[in-house]
Design brief:
77 residues, mainly alpha, 3 helices, elongated
């Protein structure tokens, strides 16, 4: 596993020092989990924004709506 050096606030150090209280084997495991959760949150936010953009484009494009309806004709329900 790679190592990295970074700075944190005093309150963050205090929180990390409670790693056992939160069920982690060490501070690094706790930090890795936090980074993974944040990464997923950022990715989900990106997907949400993309979906909103597609929705906006679709709602403003009558030709696209017509094309979609044509494609759905005969589609099993």
């Amino acid at each position: 596993m790679l190592q990295a050096k970074f700075s944190v606030e005093e309150t963050q150090v205090q929180f990390l020092n409670d790693f056992k209280r939160y069920g982690f084997k060490d501070k690094s495991a706790m930090l890795r989990e936090a980074i993974e959760r944040f990464k997923k949150e950022v990715e989900l936010e990106s997907l949400r924004k993309s979906a909103e953009l597609y929705s906006e484009i679709y709602s403003e494009d009558d030709e696209l709506k017509e094309l979609t309806e044509t494609a759905l004709n005969g589609w099993p329900e």
